[in-house]
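Dear colleagues,

I hope this message finds you well. In preparation for our joint manuscript, I am sending the Lecithin-cholesterol acyltransferase-like 1 (Eragrostis curvula) sequence together with its predicted structure, so that both groups work from identical material. I would be grateful if you could confirm receipt.
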Amino acid sequence: METLHQRLMSLVLLLFIGLLSVASEVPASLHPIVLVPGNTCSQLEGRLTDEYKPSTPGCGISKQGRAWFRLWENFTALQEDPALLPCYADQLRLVYDPDAGDYRNVPGVKTRVLSFGTTRGFGSDNPARKNVCMEGLVEALQGVGYSEGANLFGAPYDFRYAPAAPGLPQRVFSDFLSSLTLLVERASQMNGDKPVILVTHSLGGLFAMEFLSRSPLPWRTRYVKHLVMLCLGVGGSPLNMWPIAAAPAFPPPSLVYTVLTYGNRSFASTFSLLPSPNVFGDTPLVITRARNYSADDVPEFLAAAGFSDDDVERYRTRALPVTLNLRAPRVPMTSINGVGVPTVDKLVFWDGNFSAMPEFVNGDGDGQINLQTVLALQRVIGDDPDQRFFKSILIPNTTHKGMISDEFALKRVVGEILQANHAPYS
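The corresponding structure tokens are as follows:
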């Protein structure tokens, strides 16, 4: 009869063989990848405590209990019970704590990001959002030898928060930076100490740029092989001036509509997406009969759109300095953007009524990211003498979503990632 010791030895042997098998399936030449997704592409869980006082009747603890539940994205739950919509919207809100000098959840609402370190939290249960959040890119990378948990990792984040000017309280973003640092180090150590390739989409690019700029240069040189940034420039987008202006006048039919189309005025990240004076300067972006608003005039525009003086001051002190100080990451970088798609350059509210549908004046871009912000990358990053390598790629007729879902765009993106694996510049 097999003894307990023999059974344990057999299990250890099987585990060892299994680990060897996984290792043999990972091509030795590939550098590990950490994916940083775009806005609203990280799943959040929530939990309510006795401190929660809902602003909407029927949304208290009796509705959800004290267990963790899916706060974002919860398409299935809302399909089953649409009455939950105002509850979820209320529980997603942020408030600003003047004593702490920082944003936080509504009192009594606890939140956490799901599946940090993996790509499993990037998906959506909403059929309308299929392949919006890197699912297609994950599959494409797996097709060339990458494997979840072996050399492919994910860094989801709470998209409601945003980097603030250095030195200001920003607990949630600081926690993300610490977690991402440990993830990059672990991914490298699991892969023979190879440095990591960071691949980002949309807002994830801003988070990654700030992550790198706030990391010591020797650490970057040791642990980051390359930054591949998809669908982001360095200056926000005029398109983002419409949602925050129109939001009060458009009752949202769904939670997705609230966040994706009209945004949420309470989110710190709302201000991070506004056009940068460094890129757009005094060019009119919002046009009315009475006056025009440029990127230089964003504080005045926010006031006209109904934001409080305190909100405007937080834009000036927390978000604007980050936008103005975006700089070269000083690691090899490839920027890939779509062009050839009508993209908002200007908004016309001729009567000054921000609750009305504006007239859109389109230029070039990917449908969300304006070409002007993409071209500014060369000035801000490519022309920096301390930037070792910078490459900008424009893919014609490619949308913001199409960059991570269309077959021809994915082939180009994966090809550039493979090229970064073998490039000699790090």
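For the figure legend, we might mention the following. The longest strand covers residues 224-230. The domain at 33-422 is CATH 3.40.50.1820 (Rossmann fold).

With kind regards,
E.M.
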